[in-house]
Amino acid sequence: MSELVNNKQRLRMFISEAVIFSMIFAVLGMIVLLTFRQMLYRTADNDLRSAAYNLRTEHILPNPANFKTLSLLFNDQGNIVNFNALGDRSTPLAKIRMDKDGVNEIHNIRLNGSVYFRSVLVKLPSPVTDGLQTATYALLMENITSERQSVSSFAKVLFIAFLAFTTLTIFASWKLSQRYMRPVLKAWQQQQDFVNSAAHELKTPLTIIQNKLELLLTKPNAQIKDQYDGVIMALSEIRRLNSLSADMLTLAKAHSNMAVINREPVELSEFINQVIEPYSEIAELDSKQFTTNLMATGIVLIDRQRIHQLLVILLDNALKYTESGQAISLDTMIKNKQLIIMVNDTGRGISDQAKKHVFDRFYREDKSGSRATGGTGLGLTIAQWIVDIHKGKITVEDFKPQGTTFKVVLPIK
């Protein structure tokens, strides 16, 4: 079902891009063609306007020997009166009719289906006698057959180019839809996975709480001490829900860009000692060794709250996945204007396959491990986000001979 939705989204984006780009190419092609046509016709139109002006002001007709520009003289009845001057051209030109309503307007005329003219009808300032007839109108004509052929050839070239670009557009649109939909589909899939995982994480504690409360309802006369274990388990699940909701809210803020870094001057040695103090006591109570090697000193600008949260996540993680008698260590140093923090443990370690996903939301190598250790599956995801907003890097490595090392590198100011 998910793959079907992804394919539909990709196809919809592909069709949209292909149609939009094809329309753009078509519109641009039409604009170029019309501009080219107008430029070619402009010369003929200017010649006609110049000839019409000369005729009206100086009574000069175009040279009849020039076939490019010629004139037809009409009487008031619309008959051509200068057939003799036209020679062999008189036969096809005899089909032309005069339209008195189009005086001084430029029109197109086509003869024999393949010869084209631009023409303008001019009323003569004074009648002109040609033989036995008197002309009162002159139709000035400019042959534009070559221009029409140029426009036609150019249109064919544009059409071929349009087909070529459309083909390229279809190919490019398909590639672009695959490329740009990939992060969108990935984000959508991550959202789906997050919702499904969150629903699963919420369902279990809610079911436990519901069962324990329903059990209490079946024993209305029982004392609290008799139901102590059930109440404690319900409270434990409530605390787990609170922790899970807080982690989910943190991630929601992270992905909505609502969270900001509040950098402030912090004395590293004092700050880290304050963070790790309770963990030394917890490790001692659990019969675990906890050592530190704090070489990073001095005042740096960091987000105290976020870095505190980062250290808590990493130390919590180390304590959860070590057994009695195993060791945990925290090393810090400053190198090349970078704060390096390493949290090491000699626990069971992380497989190479799990290392690729250890920062994913709700990921757990041991499906039952999260509940046994009390985790939500979001801690390391939040840790990575904290490091990312500090423009740093967090990695997970093997701690030889056994265990895991989480290494954080943060640029400092």
Mean pLDDT: 80
Total beta strand runs = 11
Content of β-strand:
15-25%
Strand arrangement across the biggest beta sheet: 6-8-9-11-10
Global Rg: 44 Å
In one word, what is the shape?
A: elongated
Number of helices: 10
Number of domains: 2
Q: pLDDT under 50 segments (min length 5)?
A: 368-372
Estimate percent helicity. 40-55%
Structural class: alpha+beta
What order do the helices and strands follow?
HEHHEEEHHEHEEHEEHHHEE
InterPro entries: BphY/WalK/GraS-like, HATPase_C_sf, HATPase_dom, His_kinase_dom, HisK_dim/P_dom, HisK_dim/P_sf, Sig_transdc_His_kin-like_C
Protein name: histidine kinase
Keywords: Kinase, Membrane, Phosphoprotein, Transferase, Transmembrane, Transmembrane helix, Two-component regulatory system
EC number: 2.7.13.3
Top keywords for this entry?
413 residues; alpha+beta; Heat Shock Protein 90; 2 domains; five-stranded mixed β-sheet; four-stranded antiparallel β-sheet; 11 strands; elongated; HisK_dim/P_dom; two-component regulatory system; HATPase_C_sf; EC 2.7.13.3; transmembrane
